[in-house]
Write the structure tokens for this entry.
Amino acid sequence: METKRLNVDINVDNGKSYAQAVDLLNNGEVVAFPTETVYGLGAVATDEEAVKKIFAAKGRPSDNPLIVHIGTFEELENYVDHISQKAKLCMEAFWPGPLTMIFKAKPNVLATSVTANLDTVGIRMPDHAVALQLLRQLRKPVAAPSANRSGKPSPTEGIHVEEDLNGSIPLILDGGITGIGVESTVLDLTLDMPVILRPGGVTKEMLEAVVGPVSQPSHTEQNSGKAPKAPGMKYTHYAPNAPVYLIDKEEKTIAMALETLHQKGLKVALLAPENLSHLAADWFFTLGQKDTNEEMAVNLYHALRSCDATTADLVLATTTSTEGVGAAIMNRLEKSAGGKWYSADIQI
Ligand code: AMP
Ligand code: MG
């Protein structure tokens, strides 16, 4: 299959490109498009065969449910049983935006593979001109996970989607670099106390200012069986080919690590804030200005992907505080590294 990548930024006349995307979706095909978080790979969420093509193109396990994207508030009640007061407050405050809310699903409306047979569904309204235009022209719900091969870092540029899915999808709407760079927050609102199943663009602090206490179980708590889960969080994610090791962003610690690794004859790609670019790594990929979690979120997946164009034996990635969007960054980095931290005696 030939994969077209069409530029739909605001400077081009893009009516025909949207029309093509809408036609493809109406005909049971998948289309990649930008959102404010990362690029999504969409299919009409009520079309079982179309949704299956998402799982096939990504190589995604079938027990990992998809987020449904909608373009208007009114649509929500078509797909969910009950909209609680807290959900209404969250919608008002954060939609369109990077917040996915989990509701009890109306039975037999959405394709069963969207919800992976759960009785709940995750829904959000993206805050991106291209995504909203597409959804509003289509006037149907779109199931869309990130548009990468399963396990790889999520795409933050149209070209990343092409790298992963060229030949297996018909169309990429290319709207440039995405704004936030990490995926949406997944918030379970089916319980009295809302639970963050996946940290993301909307932080715990932002949510609590609107609905009061929200719980954010740690990785260990989520895996202990006591807390509710986002099924997708158990899979390896966001990983470049070379193994990733986490390291503190202390200049001295990193300099010593590089020396030790070089003595062992290993080539190192370093992902770190800009102020550490002078260190003697074999490749350096910036995570933005020092101490700015927002910039780190924007740069993270690009930097992780860039490692695959090197012959590095390992990747050292600096960590950050879990304040604000830092919680989402550390969640992704820990998964990317499989929880591994650098130590002088590591064996590659
Ligand atoms: P992705 O589509 O790759 O951004 O991943 C979507 C995330 O949302 C995964 O971690 C899913 O497991 C989670 N998710 C989607 N729907 C549900 C649901 N109904 N209940 C719990 N988690 C969900
Ligand atoms: Mg994903």
Remarks:
- The CA atoms of residues 262 and 268 lie 8 Å apart.
- Residues 145-146, 154 surround magnesium ion (ligand 2) (CB under 6 Å).
